[in-house]
Fold:
Amino acid sequence: MEQSLVLVKPDGVQRGLIGEVITRLENRGLRLVAARFMWVNTELAEKHYAVHAGKPFYAPLITFITSSPVMAMVWEGPDAIAAIRQTFGKTRGTEADPGTLRHDFALQARYNIVHASDSPETAAFEIALWFKPEEIVSWQRDIEKWIYE
Ligand SMILES: Nc1ncnc2c1ncn2[C@@H]1O[C@H](COP(=O)(O)OP(=O)(O)OP(=O)(O)O)[C@@H](O)[C@H]1O
Ligand SMILES: [Mg+2]
Structure:
């Protein structure tokens, strides 16, 4: 099982897309194991996006992610990291494949609705940054025997 940090970013929250994001991940067969609706402070934003510090889009990205509440979640499942990034599509809405969330709901780069961890190492770092260990709920659904091989 893999875990991934998923954020519905301020644009997704403002546009009423929290349910859409959750529905797509539930439909995929993934399991929600943590969630918190919250306003991100600059300190957390800068730690989360430290990898992008110095890039031209960094400062507006920090302003954006702290501009309105976000829905922070942890989702898990087999190959969860690849599955979630596939469901969300490429960073830019105009480059995301048809049918992906970003294709269906975004046009440009910054306002792209969601964040998802991009590797197991990143996921471990991000989940520890956003959630305490006791906030991660360990559970199973009866239906999983028909989803997970
Ligand atoms: N060229 C750009 N112009 C403006 N904003 C950008 C650009 N590239 C990335 N961003 C913003 O920074 C975020 C992080 O960039 P990254 O390259 O990690 O994209 P990603 O991995 O597809 O998205 P995320 O990390 O949010 O899942 C993007 O999701 C987007 O909001
Ligand atoms: Mg990224």
